């Protein structure tokens, strides 16, 4: 059964609680308490069977209601980079590996002076100047007639083991301080030049074998140490982690443990 709404001749209240207009379009269900839907292009809200009133809506109210009906887009929250990402984004750190290498060279050079006073314990500036001139004006020593890995006159143990460890120390320290493998190799090669033409050249001429072998052995041994050091760093047990890292990198762990450097 449908009855004519008392306030509107154009709307009919039906038995199911809906309002039908001349085009038979349902506008609202009063028993569900749904909001009354405005007719398009009109400033009046259609009557409700429940309330039986017609409420005028002015232009300003229409504008406000249309604005409030627009979907609101909430921008995604800005995510701050994690500490690991921030650390990774930083470039190589030059100070820790440079200080580490210069300290190592100073200790090794003093040890040479104690073990082999002639020529490494010489302190006469004139003799130093003569040796430096010879080192910088003549090619590095290479005597292929000598036994393998003794082409510069030194024992093979010094050349293979000693320079291998020296190169790996420079390489490992650079890798720990955010150098890539190629950058660490270049850093090791530059450090070798400083050792041969700076620290040791006041006693002997540079060695061609050392200039080539030290960076290459530093890459091979140093990268292996770096992988082991990173693997040991993943161990959850603090004591075992510290012991293994100390075995792989004793001087680096000493530096980090005393808070001199953190890489």
Task: Explain what the structure shows.
The chain has 263 residues and is an alpha+beta fold. The protein has helices spanning 59-68, 83-89, 95-115, 117-120, 125-137, 156-176, 181-199, 208-233, 238-248, 250-257, and strands at 2-4, 12-14, 18-20, 26-29, 44-45, 55-56. The strands form two sheets. The protein has a four-stranded antiparallel sheet, with no helix packed on it. It starts with a strand and ends in a 6-residue tail after the last helix.
- State the domain count: 2
- What is the β-strand count? 6
Helix content: 40-55%
Largest sheet: 4 strands, antiparallel
Q: State the end-to-end distance.
A: 87 Å
Mean pLDDT: 80
Strand order of the largest sheet: 1-2-3-4
Element string (H = helix, E = strand): EEEEEEHHHHHHHHHH
* SS content category: alpha+beta
Estimated share of beta-strand residues: 5-15%
Rg value: 42 Å
Shape: elongated
Q: Which residues form runs of ≥5 with pLDDT under 50?
A: 1-10, 27-33, 41-54
Tally of separate helices: 10
Write the layout of secondary structure elements.
Blueprint: E1 2-4, E2 12-14, E3 18-20, E4 26-29, E5 44-45, E6 55-56, H1 59-68, H2 83-89, H3 95-115, H4 117-120, H5 125-137, H6 156-176, H7 181-199, H8 208-233, H9 238-248, H10 250-257
Antiparallel strand pairs: 1-2, 2-3, 3-4, 5-6
Helix pairs in contact: 3-6, 6-7, 6-8, 7-8, 8-9, 9-10
């Amino acid at each position: 059964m449908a009855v004519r709404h008392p306030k509107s001749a154009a709307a009919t209240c039906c038995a199911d609680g809906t309002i039908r207009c001349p085009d038979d379009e349902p506008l609202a269900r009063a028993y569900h308490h749904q909001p009354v839907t405005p007719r398009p292009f009109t400033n009046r809200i259609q009557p409700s069977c429940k309330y039986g009133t017609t409420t005028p809506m002015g232009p300003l109210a229409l504008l406000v209601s249309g604005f409030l009906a627009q979907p609101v887009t909430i921008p995604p929250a800005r995510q701050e980079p994690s500490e690991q990402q921030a650390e990774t984004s930083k470039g190589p750190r030059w100070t820790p590996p440079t200080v580490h290498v210069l300290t190592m060279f100073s200790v090794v050079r003093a040890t040479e002076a104690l073990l082999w006073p002639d020529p490494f314990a010489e302190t006469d500036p004139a003799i130093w100047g003569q040796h430096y001139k010879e080192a910088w004006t003549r090619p590095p020593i290479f005597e292929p007639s000598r036994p393998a890995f003794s082409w510069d006159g030194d024992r093979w143990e010094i050349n293979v083991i000693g320079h291998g460890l020296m190169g790996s120390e420079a390489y490992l320290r650079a890798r720990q301080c955010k150098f890539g493998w190629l950058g660490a190799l270049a850093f090791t090669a530059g450090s070798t030049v400083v050792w041969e033409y700076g620290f040791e050249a006041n006693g002997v001429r540079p060695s061609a074998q050392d200039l080539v072998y030290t960076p290459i052995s530093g890459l091979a041994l140093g990268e292996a140490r770096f992988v082991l050091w990173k693997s040991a760093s993943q161990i959850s047990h603090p004591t075992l982690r510290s012991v293994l890292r100390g075995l792989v990198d004793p001087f680096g762990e000493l530096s980090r443990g005393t808070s001199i450097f953190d890489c």
